## 1
Amino acid sequence: MANILQTAYQLIDTFWLGRIGAGAVAAVSLSFPILFLVLSLGAGLTLAGTVLVAQHKGAKDRSMVDFTASQTVIVVFVVSILLSLIGFFAAEPLMRLIGATPEILRDSVIYFRVSSLGFVFLFLFFVFQSLMRGIGNVKLPMYVVLVTVLLNLVLDPLFIFGFGPVPGSGVAGAAIASIITQGISAVIGLMVLFRGRMGIRIRLQQMNWHLPTVKQLFGLGIPSGLEQSTRATAMVVMVMLVTGFGTNAVAAYGIGSRILSLVIVPALGLAIATTTLVGQNVGANKIKRAKKIGDMSVRIAFFGLTGIGLLLFLVARPLTAFFVPGDERVIEDGTEFIRIMALSFGLLGTQQVLNGVFNGAGFTKASMLISIFSLWVVRFPIAFILSSKTSMGVLGVWWAYPVSYVIATGVAFTYYKMGYWKVRTVLKRWKESRVD
């Protein structure tokens, strides 16, 4: 639910900007993959915090839970400032690089620059959310996001169209509204962590960089960050392919991507839950129970996401029309994109959950390698060949998605059944006991 609400920010933006026109939707759609790329570089560190906190929680070591949390907060804070500066000053060359046409270049650059100013707030809330998940407290972050999303429902049209003394800022207004609500959520998250009444307490005196812990965070976080950034980079490249088919195709891709991001949310929720539970059981040295959790998560993800896919297949057209009413060409393209992807959503969920198992066991490199294979060895080459070397056109980009889900899930499931992640975990525990 927290992830669904987080995704609602993008859906709300798309809804209101769709009232301006397809150009506004295309401008935000173009900048979104780059935003996701920048955020992904730091998101891996928050996952590393989840894994370490979960394992210390499983080992019943409260002092290490608090210390690791404090270290995670300061590392993510520093990284977020660096990424915010890079994003702000590199906005225009990045938009030009991915093929922004003259009619949407200005809006895409403005949206990206304003959004980059909020990276610090967004990252601080993400780290709060991740740390809470590490100890199994998932409700509080959900309530915080719920409040801010409801506030965003009001602020979005206010800043986009203007009212009274507040001037309308168009595309930039959507980003301003998000920054305000993200700032509120970050402040609430930090207050909870500093007070320490919810199972974790961070302290300023524990935020001096402790090199062994920082190294551990980066050791787990870099592969995860690379996995996420690989996804984001692939999104950028796919957008570059789509831009060759015009603004309407970009708008349709943007709407389909938003729906896809909404569908990924329950899969990510299950993956995060799996990471936490596997991590806690690995910390408690209960490997068989960790495997049982993995098996159960796979079943829930496959059948649950398949059901969601069937539903979206049936409502694809009215759903697309909801975002861009009256633009028939965008509606047709968006409907095709959603329907082509929909029936393979169960496989997408399975792959995400298996990544959660590997991450919980501390084997984040496996998730990274599987993602690289899925996106760069399978999806992009297929999309390029089908869209530019055949008569399929933009349909070739759409079909690359289900093909990549089938192949990547097969690889991940095979690796999971081989059981190397369990053997690796047992060997790691044995080495640690020998050192002790």
## 2
Amino acid sequence: MDFSLPEDVLMIRDAVRQFVERELLPLEQEYGFEEYNLTAEKHAELVQKVKDAGLWGLFVPEEYGGPADIGWVGKTAVQEEIFATLVGHTVFGRPITEALYLCNDEQKERYLLPALWGDKSASFGVTEPVSGTDPSMMASYAVAEDGKYIVNGRKIFISGAENADFMLLYARLRGSTGRDGITSFLVDCDTPGFVVERQIPVIAMPSGSRTESPCEVSLTDVEIPARNVLGTAGEGWTNLQGSLGGIRLGFGARCVALAEKCLKLARDHALSRETFGKPLADRQAVQWMIADSAIAIESLRWITYHAAWKLDQNLDARPEISMLKIVGSEMLEKVSDSAMQIHGSLGVSKELPMEHIFRGARVDRIVDGPNEIHRFVLARNIIRGYWFPGY
């Protein structure tokens, strides 16, 4: 089996690596290792530099004007380089949820293409105060009426809603139960009755951050034209389940990149720091932390690339994506913790990035589906014979 990357992927990956090292890594100290401290002006300046370097639109499919398709494996390799920095990684643009590719021709012009090219930003409206992401308990409802839908409900922990241009909103048709009737809508955030009530301060994300703070959103008699239904009314949950693979795949690449950042810092410090006449690198306790970190990182890398390969082959990668979500968040928390321990008091200071990475890893165990839910789904699929290692 050939594990090498194609030449075109290597060229893009190396170009991204050079840009990150030259333009972004030097900004980390200036902005305190916080992407959200980057000013709008500086962000725009960096986006222009990315465009000038020919690295903009890497996640845009070729049919929509992007570069030659490098596949999910190629995108994973590129994302490892993008996420090597804590400041500026968003200037390359971001993959969008695959559900938006279900847009019809008219919707593509108004929503898909602007989202792909960064002219519009989207938020993702699923989670609710009571139901979380459980579709059977989703309370937001839509009523069909004279060529439009009237939607009422409330969404919570919606990332980036404060600054989004539109939301991919999920609500059930009134009278439906369970997953049946759940429908996805494209709703402009300036629609009357659509209100971002508040930003919710959370760990690892300062209140009032420029783009990403999770928000609570209320929907009061929001009128959505029937032409803004994404796909078919009542089939929103089916659309959703098949649309998160690519977004979640990037989670694995990010955890690999940040864990490697921690490991490199830990290694360098262990080589330079002496205690009782010997470098820390000679201490078995430190050696084991370094070795265990490397093993954990490499394990996640191969789960992630296997998932990417399956997506490229149009195979079901949901089991592997649940695995990388679990392994990634727990691995990153452990590796960053070990790096802080090796650094001692300096490790928990904000002069180094480990404490920021550690806080973010704790959040990762909850966002995008708690790890317990991913374990439950994975175990259920194994027990029922839908999936088994080696199949």
## 3
Amino acid sequence: MKETEKIGPLLQAFHKECDAAASPGEWNDVRVKYLGRKSVIMEMMKLLKTLSPEDKKTLGKEVNKAKAEMERALEEKKRAVESCKGQIAVDWTLPARGVLPAKVHPLTTVRRQMEDIFIRMGFDIRQGPDMETEWHCFDALNIPETHPARDEQDTFYLNREKMVLRTHTSPVQIRTMLEEKPPIYMIAPGRVYRNDVPDASHSPVFHQVEALAVDENITFGDLKGVIYAFLSELFGSGVKTRFDNSFFPFTEPSAEVYMSCFCGGKGCSVCKGSGWLEIGGAGMVDPEVFRAVGIDPEKYTGFAFGFGLERMAMLMYGVPDIRYFYENDLRMLTTM
């Protein structure tokens, strides 16, 4: 019979498609195609009614045999597909991916450069906890309770015990002065937190590098000399500095620090036409801070200053948006 000759090729095609099914959806497509209501097998079953008893017996035997074979194969395939559900198929014949050379993130590069400069000037590196007490973060730094920096709109408060995520690395200076006696020459690089809305120049998480020097007869001239030496090492000997009067509760006198722009003072979009770039704050340590940590302000003087690490990296690499440092864009590692 012609119908029985169709069964062999039909089984071959079925097993090929059944073996290739890799998902429950593909498995169901094979089942419907070969055992569904409109399948070839079902058409043969309907044909049996029109055949003679002898032909019906011959074809019926072959059809039932083929149907049973398909059902067994589909049942085995169903268990295999369900056991692999949620797993990703892997083509082991694909060539291996190329190995990308490792490269240091720009922020890490700039931080290491800054640390190296200060170490060569005789400063030590100090670290402190990201979670601080209000006393270390504000009170010991002569920041009153009414100061805007202590408002919840600026600071992340963690619990009722007055623990905060540090808003600057100045608490490391406090801890160092509590633990060590002058002379003290230290820097405190680290992560800080502010309750800021992210934009091109603000981030709720960023990095600072603060410096502190405490010794006898330290003057504002020493502060200016250290900052100038640092900036000259980092950006080149042609850099110029400028100090404008300012106010910080923990320093007196206080100043905003500016450096000459890379445009040579001609004015550009980076410096907004002024020829100067604001890079941080500085000043002489307020006597009240010394009293809070048990250092005699009549015997010792000191200076402190701080720069934003991201600000330095943006200037060095020409990065226009601080968010680029945190978006996991591999171009930050391949083009800088």
## 4
Amino acid sequence: MDRPVSLLCLASYFKGERLIRAAKEAGAHVILVTNEKLHDAPWPMESIDERYLLPDVNRQPDVTHAVAFLARTRKLDRILALDEFDTVTGAQLREHLRIPGLGDTTGRHFRDKLAMRLRAREAGIPVPEFVPVIHHDDLRSFMDSVPGPWLLKPRTEASAMGIRRIDAPGTLWPILEELGDRQSYYLMEAYVPGDVFHVDSIVAGGQPAFTSVSVYGTPPLDVYQGGGVFVTKTVPRRHGDFTALARANESLLRAFGMVRGATHAEFIKSRVDGSYRFIEVAARVGGANIDLLIEQATGVNLWEEWARVEIADVRGTPYEVVSDRELHTGLVVCLAREEWPDLGGYDASEVVWRLRKKHHAGLIVASPDPARVDELIDAYTTRLASDFLAVKPPLGGAAEMGGIE
């Protein structure tokens, strides 16, 4: 190739600075298309060759017209959707401009929870029992045959946003009446008590080239709806949960047609029978500083690797991930009452990172000893809750822990 690789980054939220910098350092021509409201966000402008602002990067057909106009005079090699909310738009643009990557149908597997469950079930991947919120007699049959409680989930929200717990059939119908024409954008599934894991990967050539497995403290749904401290810890590579979930994740990504990029998948391990069930997957880097948790454990930054794997594919060069360490890490984050919480008293030698964000408190600990990580995370979770924790109501009226994605 006698010109730089051209990457168009689509971002409805401020994120992906490490990807942008890594792409530029690798010699790529970086184009950022983002929302007007993010004009003053601290984008790494020294690494961005062109920036375009739209009222809404996911409004169609406006974004297709804008990107197609750019394509008249620029050869776009790849389109990267940096946020989960941009996944479908990115897929539509690739389909329209015939650019390699996730297209419309495959893209829905990484955005629409109903599409995820149907595809997983077809592929023999265990999922919680579920039913689309479309035909009401199907809902009645589901509630008659599947013991409650159940979860009413938006099909296209991120993480735990908008999920409602349904404890009795009579509770469901007023909610559906309230939703009106929006109710078909939901599904309902059995509530499975258990530990929730996330599996974060870099995919190259249709196979995970790098995989990290972590386990949440309190499941994100419980933190989101009840407030509290968000906790996640890496799982040792030799642990049985790591082996089982890495294998399940590989099968999942193969079945879903993921060829290249970053993925963040979630599975639940049932407290009843110890089985693993797929919950959801996104074609993006995990939020809530999970990328930093993994980087401290392995030396691998998922944003940077996402840029590297895309550029290697365009150039037709080999790609591999180099991990230069194997530590155990834990992350704790919470909303804080104070504008700038003072974490100076959290001074264990294993503290390797502190969050610097208004009305948030958080840190990462790292150690060769997983027991030491457990000890520190347990202690710091209790202290953060006592020293700083604030709870506020999100959309839908439940309590929110800021930063979960």
